[in-house]
Every structure is written in structure tokens, then in C-alpha cells.
């Protein structure tokens, strides 16, 4: 197990280096951050002094090497737009994005898995067909349209929930949370549903497909022949064997939720990392954009490692067979 973890970490290092190079190269020649920082009225001497202080007069690979070295120490330089440390900006925005992603993932898993199990066990019932129709709507509609429709219904027409912002927050150490205030919880409902709806429908359909496949296997027929109760067969045997692919998809979707929260945060003006990234794109704030992409890559690499480790806890074949079973 330890060798496996170490090997995955070593494999992740070149991945992170390539992502850092691509992100830095992609945005290094976009826009003119010096003009953005100085405004319209500046002399050539001021421009040259700022270029030198930012290190923009150095060769590309020298700039990238310095950026990578500083990133390993948690330093991503100064934001061109706000003239503040990038690490400080991300630390301020990360709690909002992580709380939104966690609540969206919780909604998608806690609702998607039971709906998938029900539609797999009672596939001909009217409620199953209603769930499947709902899942088609969730998959088909784009995220921004879902958010706008929810705002129209629950904020404009009914006036039940806020349409933007994070509500009141409480500072717990360096972490700011809206989970401890009523307005913070209300502000979290619509963005969480918007961000988690696609994942919910995906998980529901995956669980349904896996459940239908497992129910046709020989060991389920043998369990029925032994006279086991349906509850034991469905939840003790069938559901347990559907969890491996569900864990894979749910884990990767959690990374996707964090990475693609940009649209939801923009629609609801949620003060998270996604909104910070959009604002940075508009002003060619290279350090913030590169740091954001590296952070998202790190999230995906970490989630992949956690998913692989969860396989051993869920699937007994992997614990018995070890690496050979995993390779199979």
C-alpha cells in the first residue's frame, strides 16, 4: 500500500509540472498587465521600472522556473490587478468555493444514490419514470440556465431565497464559513442545487445501470435461491457491488464541481475562487490564473489518489488480490 501511494505521488509530480508549464505559457502573453496596473497615464520610465520589478523582462523559462520554485513554497507572487499576494487571495476565496462544492456533492450523492437504487429496483413504476424524466432535464439544461431559472422562481417570484452573495459569515480561525448563520445557509441553497444537479442525475443513472447489471448476476440468483430477504439481497449484496464505479465517478465529479464552479459562482456572484479566476481573466492577471489552474490540477491528482485508496476499502477482491487484481 505504501509503495502504491509513493508511486502515485511520483507520477503526480510531472503532471503538476506540465500543468504549471501549460498554464503559465498559455497566459504569459495574454494582455498587458503593466498597462492594467499603471492605468492610462504613465511614463516609459515608470513602465520599465514596473516591468523590471515584476521580472517580466527576463526570459520565459527563467520566469517559469522562479514561479515554479515559489509555488513549491506556497508563494505565487503578487496579483497584477489587486497588488496583493496570490496565496492570500486564494486563502480568502477557498472557503467559499469548498463549502459550495461540498454541499453540491452532498446533494448529488445523498439524493442521486437513493434515486438510482429506486429506479433500478422498481424500473417500471411511474415514480421511476418521473425520476428518469427529471434526470434528462438535469443533464440537458446548461448550468447557467438552471441557475437563472432557480433565481427567477425562488428569488424573484417567491422571494424565499437570496439571488446573490454568500450571506453572513463567521470567522473560525482563518476559515470563513456561512454554515453557522441562517442567511449563509439560505444563500447556499440555490448555488448548491445549481452546481450539483448535473452530478446528481449522472450518479442516479450510473447507480441505476450498475444495480440492474448486478441484479442479473448469478450470485444474486443464488442468494434468492437461499431464501434471503429482498432487503439483504438489495442492500447487503447488490448495492455494495455497485459502489466501486460510483466511487470513481463521484470522486472525479467532486474535482469537476470545484473546477467548474466558475459558472455557478458567476451567476450567483458567489465570492469564491471561480469568480476570482473570471475577474483575473478579464484583467490578464497571470499569477492568479496560473495559481488557480495548478490548484485545480492538485485537487484532481489528490482525488484520484483517494479514490484508488477507497477501492481497497470497498472491493474485497483488491485486498485479496493486491496489485494483480487491480491491474485486472
TrEMBL record:
The chain crosses the membrane at residues 12-30, 98-118, 130-160, 172-198, 243-270, 290-314. It is a multi-pass membrane protein. Residues 94-311 form the ABC transmembrane type-1 domain. Its main location: membrane. The keyword Nucleus does not apply. InterPro entries: BPD_transp_1_N (IPR045621), MetI-like (IPR000515), MetI-like_sf (IPR035906). The keyword Transmembrane applies. SUPFAM superfamilies: MetI-like. It is found in: Cell membrane. CDD domains: TM_PBP2 (cd06261). Pfam families: BPD_transp_1 (PF00528), BPD_transp_1_N (PF19300). Keywords: Cell membrane, Membrane, Transmembrane, Transmembrane helix, Transport. It comes from the Bacteria. Belongs to the binding-protein-dependent transport system permease family. This is ABC transporter permease. The lineage of its organism: Bacteria, Pseudomonadati, Pseudomonadota, Alphaproteobacteria, Acetobacterales.
Amino acid at each position: 500500500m505504501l509503495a502504491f501511494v509513493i508511486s502515485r505521488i511520483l507520477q503526480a509530480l510531472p503532471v503538476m509540472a506540465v500543468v504549471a508549464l501549460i498554464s503559465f505559457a498559455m497566459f504569459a502573453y495574454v494582455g498587458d498587465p503593466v498597462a492594467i496596473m499603471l492605468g492610462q497615464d504613465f511614463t516609459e520610465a515608470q513602465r520599465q521600472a514596473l516591468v523590471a520589478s515584476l521580472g517580466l523582462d527576463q526570459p520565459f523559462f527563467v520566469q517559469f522556473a522562479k514561479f515554479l520554485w515559489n509555488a513549491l513554497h506556497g508563494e505565487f507572487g503578487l496579483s497584477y490587478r489587486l497588488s496583493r499576494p496570490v496565496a492570500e487571495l486564494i486563502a480568502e476565496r477557498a472557503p467559499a468555493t469548498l463549502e459550495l462544492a461540498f454541499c453540491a456533492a452532498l446533494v448529488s450523492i445523498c439524493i442521486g444514490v437513493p434515486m438510482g437504487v429506486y429506479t433500478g429496483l422498481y424500473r417500471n413504476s411511474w415514480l421511476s419514470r418521473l425520476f428518469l424524466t427529471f434526470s434528462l432535464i438535469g443533464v440537458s439544461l446548461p448550468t447557467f440556465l438552471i441557475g437563472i431559472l432557480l433565481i427567477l422562481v425562488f428569488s424573484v417570484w417567491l422571494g424565499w431565497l437570496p439571488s446573490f452573495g454568500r450571506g453572513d459569515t463567521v470567522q473560525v480561525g482563518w476559515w470563513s464559513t456561512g454554515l453557522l448563520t441562517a442567511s449563509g445557509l439560505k444563500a447556499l441553497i440555490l448555488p448548491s442545487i445549481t452546481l450539483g444537479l448535473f452530478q446528481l442525475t449522472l450518479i442516479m443513472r450510473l447507480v441505476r445501470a450498475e444495480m440492474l447489471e448486478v441484479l442479473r448476476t448469478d450470485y444474486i440468483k443464488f442468494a434468492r435461491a437461499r431464501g434471503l430477504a429482498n432487503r439483504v439481497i438489495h442492500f447487503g449484496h447488490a448495492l455494495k457491488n455497485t459502489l466501486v464505479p460510483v466511487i470513481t465517478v463521484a470522486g472525479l465529479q467532486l474535482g469537476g464541481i470545484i473546477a467548474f464552479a466558475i459558472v455557478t459562482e458567476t451567476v450567483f456572484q458567489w465570492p469564491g475562487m471561480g469568480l476570482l479566476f473570471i475577474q483575473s481573466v478579464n484583467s490578464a492577471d497571470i499569477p492568479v490564473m496560473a495559481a488557480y489552474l495548478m490548484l485545480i490540477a492538485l485537487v484532481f491528482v489528490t482525488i484520484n489518489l483517494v479514490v484508488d485508496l477507497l477501492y481497497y476499502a470497498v472491493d474485497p477482491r483488491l485486498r485479496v488480490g493486491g496489485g494483480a487484481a487491480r491491474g485486472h
